[in-house]
Amino acid sequence: MPFNNRPTPMSNSPDMKDKMEDLIEQHLPPLRKTRRQNLARLTAGLYRAEHACLSAVADEIPGSAKQSSKTRRLRRFLGNEEVDPDRWYRPVAGQLLRQAAESGPIRLLIDTLELTGNRRLLVAALAYRRRALPIWWHVDRKDGVTSAEKQEAFLEELADLVPSSADAVLIGDGEFHSVDLLQAAQENGWSYCVRLHADTYLRDRKTDAEEIGTQTWKECRALDPEQGSSRSLQGVSITKEHDFGPVNVVCH
Question: pLDDT-based confidence at 219, cuts 50/70/90?
Answer without folding.
Answer: very high
